[in-house]
C-alpha cells in the first residue's frame, strides 16, 4: 500500500513512485501519561528516503515528467534535496539541489550525492537558496520541486487522510514542526478535504520563528537544521491554517527540542531527527490549551517528520560514551550489569 491508494484525490498519475506514505501511526504511552491526553506519533521517517518530503515529491516529479521536464531543482535544508535526488534518479531526470553550506545533516548530504544529484553548497542560508532557485526555474526548462510547487502540497495532504482513516476521524489536535510551512498547509488541506478540522499547533524553533515574531528572521539559528528558515514561503497559508482551526503557532527552544528528541528515543523507542521533535517539545512546553469555550483536546497526533539516522552528528554529540572492554567474560559482565 502507498499514498497512491488516494489517487482519485490526486491531480496526476503515479509516473514515478517508491511506494511512499502509509507510514505507521503509533501510540506514545509515556507521553500520554505525561500530558494526560492520548498522544499518537505519525512516523514520517518511515518514508522511502526517511522524511515526509517523499509524499510531495512522488506527485511533483510525476507532474514534471508529464510536462516533459528534463531536470528538477530545489533549495533545501536537506530532506527535500535527498528526496528530489532519489525521485530524479528513479525517473531518469537530472537533479540539482542547492543547500546552505555546512548547514545540512550529514545523512541527507550522503543521500543527495548517492542518488547522483548535482549538489551546490551555497555560502548563504536557505532563504537565499530559495530565492535563487525560483529565478533559475523561470529562466530554464527545469521543474522547481520546493513546496512552493502546488503538487508537493497535494501529495503531502495524504498524511491527513491516513490518520483519519486509521483513527476513524481526525484527532482533536495535530502538533507539527514548521519551517517553510508547506507541511502544515498540506495537513490543513487534507483534513479539510476529509471534512475535518482539528486544531493545528505549529511549532517553530525559537531562533527561527518568523511566524511567532510576525516578521522574517535575517539569520535563523537552531540545532533543528530542517526548520532553520527565516522567511517561510507559505507564511499566509500557515497562519490561516492555524487561525481557522483554532490552533496556534508557538516557539520552542533548542534545549526543549533536544530534550524531547532524547525522550522520544529513550522513552518511546522512536528515533526522529531534531526538527521532528519540535512537535513533541511544543506539546510538552505549551500543552494544547483549548480556545476559550472549546472543549479540551483529548487526542493529539504529533508529526515526526524525519528519521533520526539523518543526523548522526547531533545524536552522538550528547550521547553517553561507549564503554571499551577486553574480550573477557568477567570484565564484560561487570560493565553490562553495573548500576
Ligand atoms: C522539511 C522539514 C520540516 C519542515 O516542513 P515545512 O513544510 O518546511 O514546514 C520539518 N521537519 C523535517 C524533518 C523536514 O524535513
Topology summary:
Blueprint: E1 25-27, H1 29-35, E2 38-43, H2 53-66, E3 71-75, H3 79-91, E4 94-100, H4 106-114, E5 118-122, H5 126-139, E6 143-144, H6 150-156, H7 158-167, E7 173-177, H8 182-194, E8 199-205, H9 210-213, H10 235-244, E9 248-252, H11 254-268, H12 274-286, E10 299-304, H13 312-317, H14 329-337
The structure holds pyridoxal-5'-phosphate.
What features would you describe in this structure?
By secondary structure, the protein is an alpha/beta fold. It folds into 2 domains: 3-51 and 151-317, Rossmann fold (3-Layer(aba) Sandwich), CATH 3.40.50.1100; 53-149, Rossmann fold (3-Layer(aba) Sandwich). The protein contains 14 helices and 10 strands. The strands form 2 sheets. It has a 6-stranded mixed beta sheet with strand order 1-2-10-7-8-9, sandwiched between helices. The longest helix has 15 residues, at 254-268. The radius of gyration is 20 Å and the shape is globular. It starts with 24 loop residues before the first strand and ends with a helix. 51% of the residues are buried. The mean pLDDT is 96. The structure holds pyridoxal-5'-phosphate. Pyridoxal-5'-phosphate binds at residues 51, 53, 79, 147, 177-183, 226-227, 273, 275-276, 305-306.
Q: Main β-sheet: number of strands, strand sense, barrel status? A: 6 strands, mixed
What is the radius of gyration computed over CA atoms, rounded to a whole number of angstroms?
A: 20 Å
The strands making up the biggest β-sheet line up spatially as: 1-2-10-7-8-9
- Mean of the pLDDT scores? 96
Level-2 CATH architecture of the largest domain: 3-Layer(aba) Sandwich
What's the helix-strand series?
EHEHEHEHEHEHHEHEHHEHHEHH
CA-to-CA gap between the ends?
Answer: 45 Å
- The share of residues in helices is 40-55%
The secondary-structure class comes to alpha/beta
- Which ions and ligands are bound to the chains? pyridoxal-5'-phosphate
Total count of domains: 2
CATH class descriptor of the largest domain: Alpha Beta
Overall geometric form: globular
Count every helix, treating DSSP H or I runs of 4 or more residues as helices.
Answer: 14
Strand content: 15-25%
The beta-strand count equals 10
Low-confidence stretches: none
Amino acid at each position: 500500500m502507498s499514498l497512491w491508494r488516494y489517487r482519485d484525490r490526486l491531480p496526476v498519475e503515479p509516473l514515478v513512485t517508491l511506494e511512499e506514505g502509509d507510514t505507521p501511526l503509533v501510540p506514545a504511552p509515556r507521553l500520554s501519561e505525561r500530558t494526560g491526553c492520548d498522544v499518537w506519533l505519525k512516523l514520517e521517517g518511515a518514508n522511502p528516503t526517511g522524511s515526509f518530503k517523499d509524499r510531495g515529491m512522488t506527485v511533483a516529479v510525476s507532474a514534471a515528467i508529464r510536462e516533459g521536464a528534463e531536470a528538477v531543482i530545489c533549495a533545501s535544508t536537506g530532506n527535500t534535496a535527498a528526496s528530489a535526488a532519489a525521485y530524479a534518479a528513479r525517473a531518469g531526470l537530472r537533479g540539482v539541489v542547492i543547500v546552505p553550506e555546512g548547514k545540512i545533516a550529514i545523512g541527507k548530504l550522503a543521500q543527495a550525492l548517492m542518488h547522483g544529484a548535482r549538489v551546490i553548497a551555497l555560502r548563504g542560508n536557505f532563504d537565499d537558496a530559495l530565492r535563487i532557485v525560483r529565478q533559475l526555474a523561470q529562466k530554464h526548462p527545469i521543474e522547481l520541486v520546493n513546496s512552493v510547487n502546488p503538487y508537493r502540497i497535494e501529495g503531502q495532504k495524504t498524511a491527513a487522510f491516513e490518520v483519519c482513516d486509521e483513527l476513524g476521524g481526525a484527532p482533536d489536535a495535530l502538533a507539527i514542526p514548521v519551517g517553510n510551512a508547506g507541511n502544515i498547509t498540506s495537513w490543513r488541506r487534507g483534513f479539510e478535504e476529509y471534512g475535518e478540522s482539528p486544531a493545528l499547533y505549529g511549532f517553530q524553533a525559537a531562533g527561527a520563528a518568523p511566524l511567532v515574531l510576525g516578521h522574517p528572521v535575517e539569520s535563523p539559528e537552531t540545532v533543528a537544521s530542517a526548520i532553520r528558515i527565516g522567511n517561510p514561503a507559505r507564511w499566509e497559508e500557515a497562519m490561516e491554517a492555524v487561525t481557522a482551526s483554532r490552533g496556534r503557532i508557538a516557539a520552542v527552544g533548542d534545549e526543549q527540542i533536544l530534550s524531547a528528541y532524547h525522550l522520544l528515543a529513550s522513552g518511546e523507542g522512536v528515533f526522529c531527527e531534531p526538527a521532528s521533535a519540535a512537535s513533541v517539545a511544543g506539546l510538552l512546553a505549551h500543552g494544547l490549551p483549548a480556545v476559550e469555550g472549546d472543549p479540551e483536546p483529548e487526542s493529539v497526533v504529533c508529526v515526526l517528520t524525519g528519521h533520526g539516522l539523518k543526523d548522526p552528528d547531533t545524536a552522538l554529540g550528547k550521547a553517553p560514551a561507549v564503554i571499551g572492554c577486553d574480550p573477557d567474560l568477567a570484565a564484560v559482565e561487570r560493565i553490562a550489569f553495573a548500576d
